[in-house]
Amino acid sequence: MRANLNLFFLAVFLAAAWIGWGWPDIAKIMPVYVAAIPGLLLVLVQLYRDATQWDRRRAKEAEASRWMRSMMSSWIRRSSSGAR
Length: 84
Description:
3 helices; 90% helix
């Protein structure tokens, strides 16, 4: 579902860039250079992130980091309680 929305935005920004490209320079500053081209770049980055499952990898890394912190804190608690 997310890819469909991203593809829709890709089509919208691509159409805006294509249509606005033929306009005079002063008229295409805002719609093409400020909106359409950065929008295209953002959509392409989002499509890349969806294709490579960026969020799932980040969630797995965060879960591994939480696990490591819990293991270290339990080890520190055990070692500090044994030193007393």
